[in-house]
Amino acid sequence: MAWILIVFLIILGGLIAPFGDLLGTKIGKARFSILKLRPKKTATIITIITGGFISAISIGLLLLFSEEFRQRLFVDIPFLQKTLDESKKALVPLQEETKMLEDKIINKEKELNKLKSNIKEFRSGNVVIKRGQTLFIAEVTSNPNIKLDLGKIYNSADKYVQKIVIPNKKEKENILLWRPNDLSEIEGVTSKTGNWILLIKSATNVLKGDNFVFVYPELLQNKIIVKEGEVINSEIFGKNDIDNKNINSKIKNLLRKTTDKIKLKGSIVNEINTRGNFIKKIRDYLKISQDIKYKLEVISLKNSKTAEPIIVDLIITKL
């Protein structure tokens, strides 16, 4: 039915359109005038009226023969328009609420940035302990009373840190804060047979006057790092490499490499202790010897464990 109606409207439009054009031409030649308009404008108006007549007939036929068109025109469109109007009205408070939320978010972001800035400024104050800094070192040996020994170590560490953070406070209270899991892990490991080094480290930067210090443990096996008489490190030099001008820098560089080496073996000391005026001894040796190449050896003077100082001597020999 729909396609028959469409074909009919096309044919009807095709018939009426030439008629309107012909009528406009006739009126123009007859010099007919409406409302005192020029004949040419009158003909144009007649042509427009004819086009409107075609549209009116088309709509009328659609309304007459198409129930779907009537449904869409008189029911669906008003309903959709009403729904659209209601949606627009409902959208207004949502837009206002969204704007309020956006303003709140912007204000909160400003407050957060300000808070971050204040915290950063505050935390950069009088820092007495840095994050990751070792606060206390203790040797722990497995025994039946290990919990009691650990308690004494914790108390000693607490008192030591209090002297750094709140030295003027008369009433002494526990200042170190531990995670319960860390304490359980320490007890579990140290209860086994062995000898250990317990490092207590700060988890955050600490300012003078803070009431609490968050800490975490690090357990290391207490073992012999170097033995007495052991050659820890050595290096070969030419005579020109260790003349009187650069001998100090060469020896410092060798000792620095030696420190790195013992740390890789498990030592926690930060520097090596030397015994005797070995620089003078080496200089005196160089004055006497005319050899082209020499070997410098860093020799341990005693057995040293994980947390014990490393004491060395430097020996120069000719090659």
Provide structural commentary.
This protein is an alpha+beta fold and 319 residues long. It has 3 domains: 2-65; 128-222; 225-318, no CATH class. It is 54% helix and 20% strand. The protein is built from 7 helices and 12 strands. It has helices at 2-29, 39-65, 67-123, 146-165, 180-190, 247-264, 278-288; strands at residues 127-129, 134-141, 176-177, 195-202, 206-207, 213-221, 224-226, 231-238, 272-274, 293-300, 304-305, 310-318. A 4-stranded mixed β-sheet has the order 2-4-6-3. A 4-stranded mixed β-sheet has the order 8-10-12-9. The mean pLDDT is 78.
Identify low-pLDDT runs. Answer: none
Q: What is the overall shape?
A: elongated
Outline the biggest β-sheet.
Answer: 4 strands, mixed
Strand content: 15-25%
Helix-and-strand structural type? alpha+beta
Fraction in helix: 40-55%
Strand order of the largest sheet: 2-4-6-3
Sequence of secondary-structure elements: HHHEEHEHEEEEEHEHEEE
**Radius of gyration, CA atoms, in whole angstroms:** 49 Å
Number of helices: 7
Number of strands: 12
Structurally, the number of domains stands at 3
Roughly how many Å apart are the termini? 116 Å
User: Residue-averaged pLDDT, rounded?
Assistant: 78
